[in-house]
Amino acid sequence: MGSFQLEDFAAGWIGGAASVIVGHPLDTVKTRLQAGVNYGNTFSCIRTVYRRESVFGFFKGMSFPLASIAIYNSVVFGVFSNMQRFLSQHRCREPGASPSGTLSDLLLASVVAGTVSVGLGTPVDLVKIRLQMQTQPLREAHLGLRAGAVALGKPPVYQGPVDCIASIVRTEGLAGMYRGVGAMLLRDVPGYCLYFIPYVFLNDWITPEACTGPSPCAVWLAGGMAGAISWGTATPMDVVKSRLQADGVYLNKYKGVLDCICQSYQKEGLKVFFRGITVNAVRGFPMSAAMFLGYELSLQAIRGDHAVTSP
Description:
Shape: globular
Number of strands: 0
CATH superfamily: Mitochondrial carrier domain
CATH class: Mainly Alpha
Number of helices: 10
CATH topology: Mitochondrial carrier fold
Radius of gyration: 20 Å
Order of helices and strands: HHHHHHHHHH
Number of domains: 1
Largest sheet: none
Structural class: mainly alpha
CATH architecture: Alpha/alpha barrel
């Protein structure tokens, strides 16, 4: 079979859908903590969202990610797996090729997947965050408006994902759909390196040499740990990205990545860049565990294999 395989894209779609269903409630909490104010800590944020919006508040904006992030993960996993396979096959044809090149293959494949992910993921994240943030009262956003400018019960700015996209394009143009793209590049390229590389090495470390492939339990554990590592280390730039993308629901405060970093630091200090690190790491485990397990098991079913195969 050639190096390019469509099965990876199909399996990535299934894994992506699983990760959204598992991780969206904590993703809402993470976004509120990073881009909102007056939530205190993680548990205080959860109580506030539940009290104001009931359990449905945690699933705000989920329909769009469920439809789009599945496709997004399909492309990311398909690109990563096919790129890694291409590099591996090319290396095998080289005389005197060394197995030590595996890490460089993983690194390059992760960088390519991370770069591709930004092109697809920035509009998805933007719409998701706008929908998650629009229920926050303006009085709490410290936006410099009159105290009575917006009432708590005011109808949402956006009626849904389609209305949100139309509103952004109408007011900011097509470029508005890529607000925060610089921060997302700085988050996702290193983030995917710290996602795929730990996963592959943890899988190899957990799986006994006698086994032909990792067990579902090994995939779940390695995927979860890789997700916690990746999301934990990506938190500072994730904060900047979330603030840039949440900016604009009512008015714009930031001119770009550097301005957002400077304003955030001046007002709240260095600790602001680690806001949501706990929920990021905690949420990263089940999301990534579901992502990798869904990917590996569906890939196994599609190919008719009897052992789980790493990407």
